[in-house]
Description:
The protein is α+β, with helices and mostly antiparallel strands. The chain has helices spanning about 10-35, 45-70, 80-110, 140-175, 180-185, 205-220, 225-230, 235-240, 305-310; strands at about 120, 125, 245-250, 255-260, 265-270, 275-280, 290-295, 300, 325-330, 330-335, 340-350, 350-365, 365-375, 390, 395-400, 405-415. A hairpin with a 2-residue loop joins strand 14 and strand 15 (about 395-400). One protoporphyrin IX containing FE binds near residues 24, 32, 34, 109 and 153.
Amino acid sequence: MTDAASYRYSTVAIVLHWLIAAAIIGMIGLGWYMSDLANTDPSRFPLIQLHKSIGITILLLSVARVIWRLMNPPPPDPPMSARQAGLAKFVHVSLYVLIIVMPLTGWIMVSASPSGVGTILYNTVPWPHLPGLSTLPLDAKRQLHEPLEFVHSKLAWVIIVLLGLHVAGALKHQFMDRDQLLARVWPGLFGRTAGPVRKTRGALWAFGGAILFFAVVAGMGVVDGHAARAVGPETPDAAKASPAPVWKVDPAQSSIVFKAAYMGRAFSGKFDDWTANIQFDPDKPEDARIHVVVKTASADTGEPYFDDSLKEGDWFDIRKNPEAVFEVNEGVLKDGPTQYEATGVLTLKGQRFPLRLPFTLQIDGKTAKMHAETSLQRMALGIGAGTPATEQDDKTKEWVKDDVALVVDVVATRQ
Ligand code: HEM
Ligand code: HEM
C-alpha cells in the first residue's frame, strides 16, 4: 500500500478547493433551474442576479486560487503510471482554466446582452459590463447573444465531464489503490497526514491580487461602466457635472401611460404628477442625464376601484413609497438617426432595477418630441406580487396580466 497522504495540500488550497467546488456544483443547478423559469416568474430576475453574484465571487476566489497554486506547489504525486499522471494533470489544468473561463463567459454574455440589464453583486456592489461590449450597436448584440449563451451553457457540460473523471480518479486512488489520496484534500475526514511539504507563502499576492482586481473593476471604471455604473448608487454630482443643455418639459403635452389587462380586459392609466430633469445634447448623447420622479399616488386609471388598489401595499404602497424614480447618469446610446436607448435605474418601492428604455427623438429647432414604449413585467418589479397573472387552478383564466406596457411621450424645449 502506498501512502499518498504523507503530505497534504495547504489549508488555503483545501478551503478554496471545496468552496469553489461546492459553489460550481450549486451554480450549475441554479443555472439550469433559473433558465427553465418562465420570463414572467417573479423569482427569475432575483435568481439570475444571485447567479451572477456567486459567479463573480467564484471568479475572484479562482484568481486567488491560481496565484496561490503558482506560489505553493502541491504535494508530490502518489506513485502511478505516466499515463495516469498525465490524465490527472490534464484534468487539473482544465479545471483550473474552467473555474476562470466559465464565470468570464457569463460576464461577457451579460455585457453584450441586448437587454442591457446590469449586475449588482448581492444587491450591493455595482459590477460593470466589460469594455467595448455594452456599447455595441443593438444589432451586433442580438447576433452575439445566442452564440455566447451556447458557449456558457455547453461549458457547464465540459465541467460536468471533467468533474466525472476527477471524482472517478479520486475514488480509484482512495478505494482501489488505497493510497489515502482524499486525505490530501480532506484531512481529518479521510485520515491523518503530515502538513504541506513546504511552508506556505504568497497569501498577500493571492488575496491582495484578487481584492485589487475586484477594486479596480468595481470601483475605478477601468471598464467603460456604461450600463453597470448606470445601475450603481445615485450620483447626483454626475448629473450636475454634465455640460449638456437643459430641456424643460411641457406637462400639457407630455405623459407617462401604462397599459395592462385585468381578467382579459385591457385598461390603461397615467401618472398625473411627475417631474423630469433632462440634460441632452444631440451631438453628445453620452453626456445625457435624465432624472424622472413619479408620484405613485397620482396613478389614474379612471376607475376608482383600480386606483384604490394601486395605492395599497402589495401594489405601489404609496404611504411607504410615495415616489418612483428613473435615472440615467451615464448618457444614452444612439442607435439610428432618431433612435436612442437609455439604460438607467428604476427605483420602485426601495428596490433598484436596471431598465433599458429605447426611444425615438425628433428635434425641431428648440423643441424635442420623445416617444418611448417598453414592456415591463410587474411581478419581477415587485408590483402586485400577491396577485398572480392567471388563476392558480386554471391557467387559461387571466387575472392581472404580468406584462405592462409603458408608453412615455415628452415634449420639451431647449433652455
Ligand atoms: C467543480 C468541482 C471541482 C473542481 C473545479 C476541482 C478542482 C481541482 C483541482 C484544480 C485540483 C488540483 C489541485 C492542484 O494540484 O493544484 C483538485 C484536486 C483534488 N480534488 Fe478536486 N475539484 C472539484 C471537485 C472535487 C470533488 C467533488 C472531489 C471528491 C472526490 C475532489 C477531489 C480532489 C482530490 C482528491 C484532489 C487531490 C488530487 C491530488 O492530490 O493530486 N475534487 N481539484
Ligand atoms: C462558475 C461559474 C458559473 C457557472 C458554473 C454557471 C453555470 C450556468 C448554467 C449551467 C446556466 C444554464 C445554461 C442553460 O440554460 O443551459 C447558466 C446560465 C446563465 N448564466 Fe451562468 N454560470 C456561471 C457564472 C456566471 C456569471 C459570472 C454570469 C454573469 C455575470 C452568469 C450569467 C448567466 C446568465 C445570464 C445565464 C442565462 C440565464 C437565462 O437567460 O436563462 N453566469 N449559467
